[in-house]
C-alpha cells in the first residue's frame, strides 16, 4: 500500500526554500507535471494552510509539516516528502498565531484517509521518532529515502 | 443510567488528522469502558453547523469562538506530546458526560 504512494519523482532532498509557500510551489510544479494533482491544487493547498496550518511541534525538537489539500484536487494518491537544507517557518496546527521551524515536509495527497488509516498511524509514529527523522535528514538520494520510509513504516505499522 | 454520547472530531479539512485522532478517541473509549457513543468527523469550516449535534467537540486546530459545547484540543494524539495525560483527561471527561443525566 505504502509503496504505491511513494514515488522517487516526488521526493525532494536537501531542498532550498525560503518560505513554505515557495516550497509548495516547487512541489506543486512537479506534482502537476506528473499528473498527481489538478491545476487548482496549489491554490487549495495554500488556502488550507492559511486557515488551518499544519506545522507540528514535536517533543524531540525536529518539527515537521504535514500539509494536505482537499481530496477532489488529487488525481492519483501520493505522499510527497521534502527534507530541507535549512528549516523553514510554518505556523502551528494547534495554534495558528505561533510559528515553528520545520525540517521535513510530508505532503499528503490522499483521497480516502480511512482507507489509509494504518499508513497515517505509522506516519505519525514515524515523525515522533527522532532517530528515523535524523536518518531521513542525512539521506542524500530519493531512493534511499523511499527505502527508509518503506522499511520504517512497515516496522512501525506492525507494532501495537 | 448512562447516556449515549455524541463525539465530534474536527480538523482543517476533515481528512487526515481527524481520521487519526478519531481512531485514538475510540481506543480511549474502549479503555474506559465507554460503549455508548457515536463518533463523527468534520472539517473546521463545517464545525459551527455541526456543533449542535455533539456533546463534546475534539479538535486538532484551535477554534476561536464559542460553540456552546465543550471543546478539547487533541493535538497530543498527533504530536505525541503529553499523550498519556491527554488520554486520561479525555477518558475522564467522556465518562462524566456518560454519567450526566439528560
Verbal overview:
The complex is a heterodimer of chains A (160) and B (102). Chain A has 160 residues and is α/β, with parallel strands linked by helices. Chain A contains 6 helices and 5 strands; from the N terminus they run H-E-H-H-E-E-E-E-H-H-H. In chain A, strand 2 and strand 3 form a beta hairpin. In chain A, helix 2 packs antiparallel against helix 3 and helix 4 crosses helix 6. The mean pLDDT of chain A is 94. With 102 residues, chain B is an alpha/beta fold. Helix content of chain B is 40%, strand content 21%. Chain B has 4 helices and 4 strands; from the N terminus they run E-H-E-H-E-E-H-H. Chain B has a 4-stranded parallel β-sheet with strand order 2-1-3-4. In chain B, strand 1, helix 1 and strand 2 form a beta-alpha-beta unit. In chain B, helix 1 packs across helix 4. The mean pLDDT of chain B is 91. Classes of the chains: A alpha/beta (160), B alpha/beta (102). Chains A and B meet through helix 4 of A and helix 1 of B.
Give the structure's gist in a few sentences.
The complex is a heterodimer of chains A (160) and B (102). Chain A is an alpha/beta fold and 160 residues long. In chain A, 41% of the residues lie in helices and 22% in strands.
Amino acid at each position: 500500500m505504502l509503496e504505491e504512494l511513494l514515488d522517487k519523482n516526488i521526493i525532494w532532498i536537501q531542498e532550498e526554500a525560503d518560505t513554505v509557500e515557495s516550497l509548495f510551489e516547487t512541489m506543486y510544479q512537479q506534482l502537476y507535471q506528473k499528473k498527481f494533482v489538478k491545476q487548482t491544487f496549489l491554490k487549495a493547498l495554500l488556502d488550507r494552510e492559511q486557515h488551518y496550518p499544519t506545522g507540528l511541534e514535536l517533543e524531540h525538537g525536529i518539527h515537521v509539516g504535514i500539509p494536505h489539500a482537499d481530496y477532489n484536487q488529487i488525481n492519483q494518491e501520493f505522499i510527497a516528502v521534502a527534507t530541507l537544507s535549512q528549516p523553514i517557518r510554518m505556523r502551528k496546527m494547534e495554534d495558528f498565531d505561533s510559528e515553528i521551524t520545520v525540517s521535513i515536509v510530508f505532503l499528503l495527497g490522499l483521497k480516502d484517509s480511512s482507507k489509509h488509516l494504518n499508513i497515517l498511524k505509522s506516519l505519525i509514529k514515524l515523525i515522533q521518532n527522532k532517530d528515523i527523522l535524523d536518518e531521513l535528514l542525512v539521506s542524500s538520494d530519493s531512493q534511499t529515502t523511499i527505502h527508509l520510509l518503506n522499511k520504517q513504516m512497515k516496522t512501525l505499522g506492525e507494532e501495537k | 443510567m448512562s447516556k449515549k454520547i455524541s463525539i465530534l472530531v474536527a480538523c482543517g479539512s476533515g481528512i487526515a488528522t481527524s481520521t487519526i485522532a478519531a481512531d485514538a478517541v475510540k481506543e480511549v473509549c474502549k479503555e474506559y469502558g465507554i460503549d455508548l457513543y457515536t463518533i463523527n468527523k468534520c472539517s473546521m469550516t463545517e464545525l459551527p453547523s455541526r456543533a449542535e449535534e455533539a456533546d463534546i467537540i475534539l479538535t486538532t486546530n484551535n477554534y476561536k469562538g464559542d460553540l456552546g459545547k465543550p471543546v478539547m484540543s487533541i493535538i497530543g494524539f498527533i504530536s505525541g506530546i503529553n499523550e498519556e495525560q491527554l488520554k486520561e483527561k479525555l477518558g475522564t471527561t467522556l465518562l462524566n458526560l456518560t454519567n450526566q443525566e439528560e
